[in-house]
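Quick check before the chapter quiz. The format below is the same one you will see on the exam, so make sure you can read both the input and the output lines.
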Amino acid sequence: MDYKEIYRQKLTTADEAVKVIKSGDWVDYGFCAIHPRVLDEALARRAPELEDVKVRGGISLWKPAIFDIEDPVHHIIFNSHHMSAVERHHIASGAGFHEPMRYSELPRYYTDHITPPDVAMFQVTPMDKHGYFNFGLSASHLRAVIEKSKVVIVEVNKNMPRCLGGFDNCIHVSEVDMIVEGRNDPMGIQPSNPATEVDKAVAKLIVEQIPNGACLQLGIGGMPNTVGAMLCESDLKDLGVHTEMYVDAYVDLALAGKVTGMCKNLDRGRQVYAFAAGTQKLYDYLDDNPACMAAPISYTNDVRTVAALDNFISINNAVDVDLYGQVNGETAGIKQISGAGGQQDFVLGAYLSKGGKSFICLSSTHKNKDGSLGSRIRPTLQTGSVVTDTRVNTMYVVTEYGCVCLKGLSVWERAEKLISIAHPDFREELIREAEKQKIWYPHNRR
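Here is the expected output.
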């Protein structure tokens, strides 16, 4: 079969490709770094002649062109699986919505539950000699998207890293309806903020509990990445990687010789991930690297997969935690900040892992709009805030003031431990609130 000839037959322009999209259609952009570029711009140009087009995507690393169209509510709205700052502002304007999910289940949402995409369009690597386009930086749930989409359009980008894997990380030219050659834009950058003193204090408490041979999952944010930086300077060895999001910290760990994956029960020697975002250093490292394995989210985040990996260490951020141990990792009241992602998957899986631990980390305080400080350890979660991790699933909670394990504790013990790692300025107030809620034992330490 002449794959190059099939390629030529399906090659078209972005403006011609998006003519297939009709009013009322569902359009899928893939996820994160593989969102389309020139196809997105072509769809934005078509916006005035379309109504009620619904786009799905998530963790945009740049501002999609469809965000800048006139009157987006009537023409094209965006539905985010997991919000970046770019999407947060767009959705706050009323021109989009969040789609709550447990990330490991996302492929099944497409196959069993949600309206199938009429059109899927996303960036891929150039076609190889066997006729395959690689999904690049986001295997995630793409195979499920393709299987349910009526039309599949790929946008070829020569700068997309070819991310090797085991399964469900490619699409064959025979499965593609249209091919568009893009501008070869550089990949979107997701830089890490410099570590604060609070980040370092929290990271130090976590690193102390990580053994040799541990398998790591680092969530999005400064604190998890600071743990990675601190591990580079530690004496630990033979660490493994199994995560949903691959970030720069893993590259640093691998280049420092800390990651071998030789102690992993599954995928020995491979760094497993579902999608990646970071700096060019990360993209260069992942490109054609057999030490790394791109896999679908239904595998990377499956609780059964995580539980099968001994000494699994899960490290994720939170917005706030209440005195019962309920964790909010995604909202400020009713305002959506990010998404649940795979946090619950890894919290559950890590506890089931032999020797595994899950850590929820957060600074003890946040700054209010008026410049005053507020406590992230709260009597109860703010009205409207969601529970990302239920109190029975929370294991370790860490602030700069300490690390406590909540497993098996009564409500008064939980309150006591959480207040002990709150900022000192708020402890007495939290005790008074705990007393009102009848979760403070009279003999508790003050």
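If your answer matched, good. The first strand starts at residue 11 and ends at 12.
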